[in-house]
Amino acid sequence: MITVIIPALNEERTIGKVVRYCLNHSRVTQVVVVDDQSIDKTRDRARDAGADVIISRKRGKGISMKEGVQVASNDILVFLDGDIHPYPANTISLLTDQLISGQYDFVKARFSRNAGRVTELLAKPLLNILYPELSRFSQPLSGMIAGRKALFERIEFLHDYGADIGILIDMFQMNARIKEVFIGHIENKSKPWHELPKMSTEVAAAIIRKTIMHGNQFSGFEEITNGKYSIIPKYSNEK
User: Fold this and answer.
1) Does residue 226 lie in a domain region?
2) Which CATH number goes with the domain that contains 28?
3) What range defines the domain where residue 169 resides?
4) Which of 105, 108, 121, 228 could be bridged to 176 by S-S, CB 3.0 to 4.6 A?
């Protein structure tokens, strides 16, 4: 069975529809909405639709995701965004079928939409240098993901815009079998220009933090003679 976890902040217009969409799936037995201290009616709308609602102790997507994992009652976990409606009809099945069959441990969605500026200009180039094995993912910042609870319990959740890329890197470092699946077309808003510097900074910081944390385990990181680390692109196929 499947638990869907939805971190949400001020999503009263869509959260009820997203919860009902999830509960219509035959394998979903629990929907957890982790409310990030909303000031609108997000919690009421989610409860009315049938979700288990918890209030995050501290604002931040990574914290909300971790708290959702802690209360999840199933082995297969799906994370969805609370501000997207409608989702393509088969989204949950596409994210989970290959987990249930045992083919993969972690599945990440890709979808058609307006191009992600931070993805193309920052995330992909950094990954290509530091984690070339992950450069095959077309949408590494996608927050629509699924995986086994046991793996999510082992990772470090980063904050806000760095959360999703941090999860991908941690899953890779744990040698999880990772798959990217196409779910269809998503209608969501691009971030306004004034938010892009913050988003870019947090994504870059997440990649660099994971690079340092896992520095002795991958090919793009070399120790030099003075004891400090130097980031050097080395395209090995050791993994």
Assistant:
1) no
2) 3.90.550.10
3) 2-120+137-193
4) 105
